[in-house]
Amino acid sequence: MPGTVGTALGDQARGGTGALRRTLSFRDLVVYGLLFIAPMAPVGIFGTLQAASHGAVALVYVVATLAMAFTAYSYAQMVRVAPEAGSVYTYARAGLGRGAGFVAGWMAMLDYLLIPAVAYLFSGIALHALVPQVPQWVWTAAAVVVTTLLNLWGVRTAAMAGFAVLALEIAVLAVFVVAAVWALAAHGAQRGWAVPLTGEGGFSVAAVLGAVSVAVLSYLGFDAIASFAEEASGGSRLVGRAVVVCLVVAGVLFAAQTYLAALLAPMSAAELAAKPGEQGAAFYTTVDAAVGGWLHDLVAVSKAVGAAFAALAGQAAAGRLLFAMARDRRLPGAIAKVDAGSGVPRRALLGAAAVTLVAAVWAATRDDGLDQLSSIVNVGALTAFALLHASVIGWFRFRGRGAGAGLPGATGATRPTGATDPTGPTGTTGLVRHVVVPLVGLAVVLAVVAEASPVAQAVGGGWLLVGLVVLAVQYGRGRGGGAGPGVRG
């Protein structure tokens, strides 16, 4: 494939920053992705999606998985071109140039720094509900401290701890599935078996697509796998495969649990739509009614612990993003250092943890803190996804053609001029893979952004404006432009 890269770049550190260590297996990568997403992510928004989709909540997650598959595919394509830490920042830098790379990294930063804050807050809320004598903000801060220490200990240690927590979450989900199947066998379903796929009172395409625009936000985090490209022991192909596998596994888990919950839910979609206040607790209400309070408590504990470790994965990804941008002198170079003992970007991790701690504790002290944080985290990630899709087109159709070694340290080979390759960037298959697929993915992302709340759009636009000002200052100092190190312009 012309212009692609065959080996990763983390072994060749820039500016004496030190190299990240290749210690992560395929399982570790999938664990990080599933931790960030959380296997029971639909629990909190089940009622909202049930009402919005007119009861076709399981179909919503099937469609959402297919929609996000385009983004996963673009990640798999670009991680082979630029297998570095930094994820979408690195890919946009390769496919669109340094300026676009900075914008992608800047927008992803909003997501990677604040999604962990939301997860820590979820953990604090759940633990406070279980032990109300301890203030919510104390639980939130404690979760930040514990997971930050694990991240600083080393990526392999954090992955092992994450695997244990992920196993617990999946075990709890399995208990729910078994209990739900038993309840259905003993007492029957509250509605028709096909209703979670077809809706109540008639199928509505508009209602399903509207709910999909919310459901795709459950998947934010699977892309964090790409941030560990320099630490994967199996190279870029392993990372790309892990991204796709993580998305598929999450999609299956999401569709299965919402299908069962929809069959058992005591309230219809119309009743939930008429009573918005009941939507947030709809999953727990279903569990209480169909199985009992013991499962309610078990799910709550799992969500509390799982949220903290979702934040652990997010914090780790944020640290790699900051590290990569600092290594390229887009952020202060002082944070582009790798700790000799643990092999992790300690300063970048501490910087990410500090921002997350302030945001999470601030939100934990406010009644509307969760709404405030949740409203602003999504636009950053979606804007970065849009630039990711554009990067695929930019690299394979323009910048990468004739570039024998896409980025520093690359060993890719260039096909001789004039040679034909039906799977390459000018072939029919290449046209589908590198133009049609990313264009469809771009359209999906833009549609979701258009459905975002006005507050989220305003905050995202403001953050983008600040980033453009920073970029303009960097251009003025002679640090902008160009195609990225080693990329032919």
Q: How do the strands and helices of this protein lay out in sequence?
A:
Blueprint: H1 26-37, H2 46-52, H3 57-81, H4 88-96, H5 98-130, H6 136-153, H7 155-187, H8 195-198, H9 205-215, H10 236-264, H11 269-274, H12 282-290, H13 293-327, H14 346-364, H15 369-374, H16 377-399, H17 428-451, H18 454-476
Helix pairs in contact: 1-7, 1-10, 1-13, 2-9, 3-9, 3-10, 3-16, 3-17, 4-5, 4-16, 5-6, 5-13, 5-14, 5-16, 5-18, 6-7, 6-13, 6-14, 7-10, 7-13, 9-17, 12-13, 13-14, 16-17, 16-18
A few lines on this structure:
With 489 residues, the protein is an all-alpha fold.
Describe the protein's architecture and organization:
The chain has 18 helices and no strands. Helices cover 67% and strands 0% of the residues. It has helices at residues 26-37, 46-52, 57-81, 88-96, 98-130, 136-153, 155-187, 195-198, 205-215, 236-264, 269-274, 282-290, 293-327, 346-364, 369-374, 377-399, 428-451, 454-476. The longest helix is centred in the middle third of the chain and has 35 residues, at 293-327. Mean pLDDT is 81; it is low at 1-16, 402-423 and 481-489. The two termini are 18 Å apart. Helix 2 (46-52) packs antiparallel against helix 9 (205-215) and helix 6 (136-153) packs across helix 13.
Sum up the structure in keywords.
mainly alpha, 67% helix, globular, disordered C terminus
Write the H/E string, N to C.
HHHHHHHHHHHHHHHHHH
From the alpha carbons, calculate the radius of gyration and give it in angstroms.
Answer: 22 Å
The profile of the biggest β sheet is: none
Tally of contiguous helical segments: 18
Q: Fraction of residues in helices?
A: 55-70%
Q: What class would the helix/strand composition place it in?
A: mainly alpha
Tell me which oligomeric state these chains represent. Answer: single chain
User: Which blocks of ≥5 consecutive residues have pLDDT under 50?
Assistant: 1-16, 402-423, 481-489
Distance between the termini: 18 Å
Using the alpha-carbon principal axes, give the shape.
globular
- How many strand segments? 0
Nearest-integer average pLDDT: 81
Strand content: under 5%
